[in-house]
Records
---
Amino acid sequence: MDLQDFLVQGEGSEQDKKDAWNLFQEAYEHQMKGELEEAVNHYKRSIKTHPTAEAYTFLGWTYSFMGKLDEAIEECHRAIEVDPEFGNPYNDIGVYLIEKDQFDEAIPWFEKAMQAKRYESPAFPHLNLGRVYERKGQWDRAIECYKKALALNPNYALAKRALGRLISMLN
């Protein structure tokens, strides 16, 4: 994602969008350093300046690092309200539901992520859906999902490992 994504989203002045972008970048830097409270504060300031689906999604991601899965899910729902075509929050809700051992509830979120028109990493929901099917003992469906993830991204190491692990387990 770059400044252009922020500049085309929603109404607001160009300056507000640029300020929101700068706050978003600062938030991400704090998040990557493990400074989660600072990241939350910066994401919230970015959203207040100019709300974007990305800022809500990344705020949710930060909450997930803090173990606040319900808050993370809420932020993803806000992201979807801002931009229903953005795939990340659908996938992220599914991941958070997996973390809450709510496997069946996660499935439709991954399916929605797969249908999203704007998603830089479309292989992710296929891998995650495979994880659900694997946990449920539905091996064939899991293998199919892992293969689809690899078809979308042949270099996706997690999908390669998951597929290899599952196939070797079944042999």
---
Amino acid sequence: MRRTERYPTKGDANSLWHIYKTVPFFKVAKNFIVIQLSRYTPFISFKNFLFRTFLKMKVGKKTSFALMVMPDVMFPERIQVGDNSIIWYNTTILAHEYLIDEYRIGDVVIGKNVLIGANSTILPGVEIGD
């Protein structure tokens, strides 16, 4: 089992229906704008700046995010990528998952000198070693 924190939801609706009880609307809106800007910019150092400054992600030195990478819009601060790693085209990194009766949140840790291939999805609670 991945290392996640589990939060049961109550009521007649699924957990995503109650999203703004778990994360503030304006945080999601700000993160969405920053992530969309980062997805289309070809400047790696600028992406790293956006991720570190506005999303509070832990991004190592010389780490490269390719075009269209999608970090978690709700909990990006729970993502850590080590030095000299490459996250390839159209990868999605999620630190949350909303299910029918619960939602889960977990840290994502990607080590140093790691290559994540194109079109990958990394789920919450996953740790990839150096």
